[in-house]
Design a protein that fits this description.
Number of strands: 7
CATH architecture of the largest domain: 2-Layer Sandwich
Number of helices: 8
Helix content: 55-70%
Order of helices and strands: HHHHHEHEEHEEHEE
Bound molecules: adenosine-5'-triphosphate, magnesium ion
Largest sheet: 5 strands, mixed
């Protein structure tokens, strides 16, 4: 490089650097200004740096006044035209950020966010992300609405279910107090039964609220599934015998499952009691346990006549107990048993499902071994 060229590089570089530094300072001081202003500044620094370098160098080269005037004119015209085009191009950026703001506002208003596809890649990526967040938000809101609805139904149904036996208790207590009860022993027995039913229901509600609050204290340990099943069958056999229902268990002697003993007994007990309740006289119930890969499967198959396909998933809903009228006196439950089963099984990282099978339905619990 000759000495002259070195001088030119230094002078041009110096002028452009000076403009760049001024631009950087202004950019820092106005960093909170609208993005449109940043677009102006970027264009002005880029074009201004070139113009300052050219004009500064030309002046230092001691060109004739005429040549210098020509260069200044050329730079001024080219600079102005380039500036106009730069700003025109920067409008895309400005309009994209405006669109982004509009999308965020749509998200806030719960509307469907939809990037037009005409935005620059990064802005479109943010738009896509907003659209996904919107979908998640709507799904969460729908779930929340559903939960709120089932909570409201639960409160309404439970108060209905408690009011009837309470009215019965009160009537019987009054009759006993006034000495008007024709058969006091039967009244006392009846009152105890009602109190037991209400206690069981309150216990179920408490268990369910602990499941939902995530405050279950599970003591997970290796258990012989066969022992748990035979205990439940033994406990349920008087009820089964009263309904002339045969109940049988088939579980391998060395099948081990890791679970909380009380929770597992409750799961099996609830499924077996449901099966007995819904199986007509002379029907059979089979409780089976088997290993399936890394999971232990427990199934309860009954002869209930099948569940309507539309209602198969609903049986696990809180307080759902079929399409029939809610009449607690007829001995039906509160619709909490299967919700508790599902909560307890999921707390063990397992799954529970139901399907129609043969003359009835089959509840299948899968637990990690
Ligand atoms: N084995 C079954 N066969 C047919 N229908 C069933 C069976 N188990 C449950 N259902 C249906 O699912 C509903 C919900 O069952 P769930 O055990 O949750 O409540 P419940 O038995 O009515 O009351 P609870 O268990 O609280 O005493 C039942 O009311 C019944 O309609
Ligand atoms: Mg039940």
């Amino acid at each position: 490089m000759t000495h002259d060229q070195l001088v030119i590089v230094l002078i041009a570089g110096g002028w452009s650097l000076a403009i760049g530094l001024i631009g950087a300072l202004v950019g820092w001081r106005t960093r909170r200004a609208p993005i449109q202003w940043s677009a102006w500044l970027i264009a002005a620094v880029a074009i201004g740096g070139v113009v300052a370098g050219v004009v500064g160098t030309a002046q230092a080269m001691f060109l004739s006044r005429h040549d210098l005037a020509v260069i200044v004119l050329v730079c001024a015209v080219s600079g102005a035209v380039s500036m106009a085009f730069s700003l025109l191009l920067a409008r895309t950026l400005v309009s994209s950020t405006l669109r982004l703001r509009a999308m965020a506002a749509e998200l806030g208003a719960g509307e469907v966010v939809m990037p037009t596809g005409a935005e620059p890649r990064e802005i479109r990526a943010v738009g896509d992300e907003l659209a996904r967040s919107g979908d998640l938000l709507r799904a969460a809101q729908a779930r929340e609405r559903q939960l709120e609805q089932s909570r409201r139904e639960l409160v309404a149904w439970v108060s209905h279910d408690l009011r009837t036996p309470l009215a019965g208790l009160r009537a019987m207590a009054e009759a006993l107090e006034d000495g008007l009860a024709p058969d006091p022993a039967r009244y006392h027995h009846q009152m105890l039964k009602q109190a037991d039913r209400m206690t069981a229901m309150v216990d179920d509600l408490f268990e369910l609220s602990r499941i939902h609050a995530g405050t279950l204290n599970l003591c997970v340990q290796p258990l012989a599934l066969r022992d748990v099943v035979s205990e439940c069958i033994a406990g349920a056999s008087p009820v089964a015998a009263a309904g002339r229902v045969v109940i049988d268990g088939e579980v391998g002697p060395d099948l081990e499952v890791r679970a909380d003993p009380d929770a597992l007994s409750r799961v099996v007990g609830n499924l077996v009691m449901n099966a007995i309740r819904h199986t007509p006289a002379d029907g059979a119930i089979l409780v089976e346990g088997r290993r399936d890969g890394a999971a232990i499967e427990l199934s309860v198959t009954d002869a209930c006549g099948g569940i309507h396909p539309d209602e198969l998933e609903r049986v696990f809903d809180v307080a759902w107990r079929g399409s029939s009228a809610r009449t607690p006196e007829t001995g039906t439950g509160a619709g909490l048993g299967l919700a508790i089963v599902r909560g307890l099984v999921e707390a063990h990282r397992g799954t529970v499902s139901v399907s129609n099978h043969g003359p009835g339905c089959r509840f299948l619990v899968r637990l990690p071994a």
